[in-house]
């Protein structure tokens, strides 16, 4: 094949290759339908179904957003993110949140910012399943954390494993 024809073929096939992408790239606008994961994957930590809504790659590491769906009573262990702010938005259910010494309850439509370096913990306390939108900025390794442990359905207990993802475990989950 002549070089000229090879280059033409490459240029003509580029749009088809772009359409075949399954992962949204940085600077690409996209919509994610209700009940779906932006990458078409499935994740769980045992107490909820997790849907990735925006990945770190799409935002050049600036943001990672997920949806915790069908949250049973309970939540993660008390922890801190040394380098990420974490934001919660309650869509359904009732959530008890502790940030440092502050204690509050989130109802549908409420949100709270949990600043980096400030210990926090939350739990779904309602009688019906809950739903949260959670955002991390910058994204750090949080997407990798949810991808890795979302396969097993169990939160890690080894503190050295957690530090690889930018998390420090400080205590048990909230008692419900």
UniProtKB/TrEMBL annotation:
The keyword Nuclease does not apply. It comes from the Bacteria. Keywords: Signal. Residues 1-20 form the signal peptide. SUPFAM superfamilies: RmlC-like cupins. Residues 78-135 form the Cupin type-2 domain. The keyword Signal applies. This is Cupin domain-containing protein.
